[in-house]
Amino acid sequence: MERVNEVNAKELSSILSLRKEKSKESDQMMHYGLFQEAIDVNLTLIDIYQGDQKAYSRLGDALLKMGKSAEAHDAYQSSIYLEKTKKENTQIAVDSAMRADWNKAIQINFDIIDKFPWDPEPYNRLGKALSEKGQNKKAIQAFQCALVISPNSPIAKKNMKRLEKTSGLKASMAVASTTPGRSFIEETGRTGITKLVNIPRNFDVTDLIAGHGVDLISVDRGMRILDSKGKEIGSIEPKLALRLKKLVEGGNTYSANITSAGEGGVTVIIRETYRHPTQSNKPSFPAKSSVLGDVSMAALGYGLNDAGKQTHLKDWSDDDTESGDDEVFSPMIPKILLGGSTLEGRGVLD
User: Fold this and answer.
1) Per-residue tens of pLDDT for the chain, all 350 residues
2) Residue 106, CB-side half-sphere exposure with 13 Å CA sphere
3) Are the C-beta atoms of 267 and 313 separated by less than 8 Å?
4) 195 and 155 share a domain?
5) What is the CATH number of the domain that holds 264?
6) Same domain assignment for residues 137 and 165
7) For residue 322, what are the domain limits?
8) CA angle, corner 340, sides to 334 and 342, nearest 5?
9) What DSSP designation does 219 have?
10) What's the whole-model pTM score?
């Protein structure tokens, strides 16, 4: 496939139809014991779509049935590598958005689409990044593609509707906060991630964007998070709120940014920006803090989970389709905070 620099819903429909047809054909061949034919079908599909990890997996199954263990192993390894590569590049897309580096976000999401055109997630991320650059027409095209894959995606529908209304207006305003998202994960004990509670029923979480700064306010009964307009988004869970409230009263200061938002909830990353000398031995977020345990690994993505499946958040995508059902992205921030290792291997698509 040629490297893409634009998306087209009609072309995507053709891709999905062919892939579905070949996948079904492969399954039928396997069912009837026609393993060589199944191998041929999947090789044809891989020749067209080099990033089809499921085709590699089916190829491995067929080769194994033929007694070709070494070749099957290679096919399985290719499938694993592709999945790993996609996750690594999704992380890059997340990081780019949190830094408000929309040009990089656009580039990397196009790269992911080039390899995995059937995945709805990069289309929704791409649409968001394009809209941030004021490229509303292209953003609408990206969301249209997301709808081709996930017809019931409320996120894509809502964003398209909003963009269609503003397509004749000025470009979207730049992100108010330009603090690099990466700086949040530099110092253990000074950074924490938590899922908000008590989100107002009438608050539209789809207006939230990963990377945007929010205000952390101390109140009588805990800590609340407000958006740039001063509207309440939600509250910090009680245990963490009590700890931070005491530290704030002792002189500490904090900043916060959205990491994900959707029907399943809103997640924020909080950083200690100043530690009062009298609290020098009191880390805001202990290395093994239960705060991180309260947040699902899959809930730390870059956006919205339309379906709210198992309350996990997927980044600006819908998980009611085959391409995303078993692929919930889990950023590595908690592991970094806990002293774990990051993903290994290459970080960009070939």
Assistant:
1) 445 567 888 888 888 889 999 999 999 999 999 999 999 999 999 999 889 999 999 999 999 999 999 999 999 999 999 999 999 999 999 888 888 899 999 999 999 999 999 988 899 899 989 988 888 889 989 999 999 988 877 778 888 888 877 654 433 333 333 444 444 444 557 888 889 999 888 887 777 777 778 888 888 878 999 987 788 999 999 999 999 999 999 999 988 888 887 767 888 889 888 889 898 888 888 765 444 433 433 333 333 333 333 333 334 433 333 333 333 333 333 333 333 333 333 333 44
2) 17
3) yes
4) no
5) 3.30.70.2330
6) yes
7) 181-337
8) 85
9) E
10) 0.52
